[in-house]
Design brief:
Layout (H helix, E strand, L loop, with lengths): L7 E4 L5 H10 L1 E3 L9 H10 L2 E3 L8 H5 L7 E3 L10 H6 L3 E3 L6 H14 L4 H10 L21 E5 L3 H12 L3 E5 L6 H7 L2 E2 L3 H7 L2 E4 L13 H4 L7 E4 L8 H9 L5 E4 L10 H8 L3 E3 L8 H19 L14
Parallel strand pairs: 1-2, 1-3, 3-4, 4-5, 6-7, 6-9, 7-8, 9-10, 10-11, 11-12
Helix pairs in contact: 1-13, 5-7
Bound molecules: (2R)-2,3-dihydroxypropanoic acid.
Length: 334
């Protein structure tokens, strides 16, 4: 009886125990037990020897790195929904398949987008800080203290009405927001009807008319700085921006300027242009309670991480069983 060689799999960060255990059972898995980010040199060394790389959004898998891949490398099975950290074209040129983990972070990410949509106008982070900073010693309720802005009845403009955008819209509708959206394609009439959503072909026009903007589109060359200085200037001075997608979709310096100058009321950001570095000017705005900042945690639930691991395993198994993995990312489609 011939036994098939187990694929060698290099995983760049720690994964939930249950996922790592299964990976060890199925593959010749190289785990990252101390969870320290891998250097580019370590990635190059791995790429030269293994069959499969399992990176996360924090690993930069660019054309230069892919060029270093050895003849064994067949698959980059990213432990992520987004694939903007992987040069999919360069991988395709080398005959390397790329997969991701779509669909399993949708509800968690939408929850956090909704949390920011509520938190920023209602000054939630600021209020929580007042009590802890004062060790519970506060003057008590008064009619004009800590006034925020009502959510119910306001207009939400969603940029990117894919799975996550639609899940945000469902939550927002339940909170009394009216749904407006801009997307490459109009969604089905049934979805529009269920959400009572208004489609805006013109992003510029939508921006000028909504109270809160939620960014839920992927990061692609076409969406880089989609929220440019010009577009941010179209928003109303009483409006807020929430970004749980990718930092690069927003021109961060322009956003900071708009908030400083009072041309936008505030922002809730879970993602940043130069992660893991956060612009100190944003941190200053956070200290002045003008923005709420989260450390890229919108999909951080144990359930999503286990589901993502399951998807990575299925993609690897399917590939080495000789089939097309279910979550292939094709060049030009990420
Ligand atoms: C991803 O996987 O793309 C997410 O950004 C993680 O939250």
């Amino acid at each position: 009886m011939t036994s098939k060689k187990r694929p060698s799999v290099y995983i760049t960060r720690r994964l939930p125990d249950i996922v790592e255990t299964r990976m060890r059972e199925l593959f010749d898995a190289e785990l990252n037990v101390d969870d320290a980010p891998r250097s580019q040199d370590e990635l190059v060394a791995a790429l030269r020897r293994v069959d499969v790389l399992v990176p996360t959004v924090m690993d930069r898998i660019d054309a230069a790195l892919i060029e270093e891949a050895g003849p064994n490398l067949k698959l980059i099975a990213s432990f992520s929904n987004g694939t903007d950290h992987v040069d999919v074209e360069a991988a395709a040129r080398k005959g390397i398949t790329v997969t991701n983990t779509p669909g399993v972070l949708t509800e968690d990410t939408a929850d956090m987008a909704m949390a920011l949509i509520l938190a920023v106008p209602r000054r939630l982070a600021e209020g929580a800080r007042i009590l802890t900073d004062a060790q519970g010693d506060w003057a008590g309720w008064s009619p004009t203290w800590m006034l925020g802005h009502r959510i119910w009845g306001k207009r939400l403009g969603i940029i990117g009405m894919g799975r996550i955008g639609t899940a945000v819209a469902r939550r927002a509708k339940a909170c009394g927001l009216s749904i407006h959206y801009h997307n490459r394609h109009r969604v089905s009439a049934a979805t529009e009807e269920a959400l009572e959503a208004t489609y805006w072909d013109s992003l510029d026009q939508m921006l000028a008319r909504v109270d809160i903007v939620s960014i839920n589109c992927p990061s692609t060359p076409a969406t880089y700085h989609l929220m440019s200085a010009r577009r941010l200037a179209l928003m109303q001075p009483t409006s807020y921006l929430v970004n749980t997608a990718r930092g690069g979709v927003v021109d961060e310096m322009a956003l900071i300027k708009c908030i400083r100058e009072g041309r936008i009321a505030g922002a809730g950001l879970d993602v940043f242009e130069n992660e893991p570095t956060v612009n100190p000017r944003l941190l200053r705005l956070a200290n002045e309670n003008k923005v709420v900042l989260l450390p890229h945690m919108s999909s951080s639930t144990i359930e999503s991480r286990i589901d993502m691991g399951e998807k990575v395993i299925i993609n690897i198994r399917t590939y080495f069983d000789g089939h097309r993995p279910p979550d292939r990312v094709l060049p030009g489609r990420n």
